[in-house]
Amino acid sequence: xxxxxxxxxxxxxxTAGLYATRGGLKNVTLFEMGMPGGQITQSSEIENYPGYFExxxxxxxxMDTWQEQCFHFGLKHEMKKVQKVQxxxxxxxxxxxxxxxxxxxxxxxxxxxxPKRAGFKGENEFFGKGVSTCATCDGFFYKxxxxxxxxxxxxxxxxxxxxxxxxxxxxxxxxxxHFRAAPSTVDRAQRKENIHFVLExxxxxxxxxxxxxxxxxxxxxxxxxxxxxxxxxxxxxGQNVNNDVLKTNDGSFIxxxxxxxxxxxxxSMRTSLEGLFAAGDIRIEAPKQVVCAAGDGATAALxxxxxxxxxx
Length: 312
Description:
alpha/beta
């Protein structure tokens, strides 16, 4: 039986593995189909992780040292896809896609979330080359330059406001004439002089060349097309929470989640089910930053260690 099963190999999962093994747990396995690293491996440059400031290093390079360090302390990695997690008496049953299963005293779920794609032409082609889903990560690359933001929820307007303090102009493109965001968030964005609203409009295409995005083609409600000449487009149309492993056969969840499917945790990353922890982007109110995910993983691992000690 495992002491701790970690599902997901991003910054939260790897850090959970590091703290769990270095904290004394002997049988800790991380389950991740590919090589660990998570979404950050897709980043072209890392410069906002404290203590790490080396221009030109990609997210893949950044995560390489994490893997080596975590495995050094005894964390095991198995390339298996977890299908579901169930609680049975005082332990968990972790079932894999191939039908096999393993038992574990604790489970830390770090499967994250995936930004939704809007579906316009060129979105996939220029993702990471001018199309982004993280203003905190990539906003600085457009300092004193104009950018566009697609979306009308709280995240879109909050990120537009963040970008307005970095970029020369921010064009918020929204398909409706009103916003789903909280009134206070809308008011704050509307009062910012360099935020401009392009309402009742959709993004038809993002255009660019070998150097990246050069412009965004927009269609208004009358069908008329226009082009915004911007080097960056930030897309905020929601998140898909990767929570399938926590679902039962009838579609319900083994622990409490909110309306968006994010796992409800306390400050110790404990879920409503004893022995089950959630860390990183899968949890409620996740900042979606590497440094925060790593902190979550460490907290969850310490919680798992304490839980096992209490059961002894």
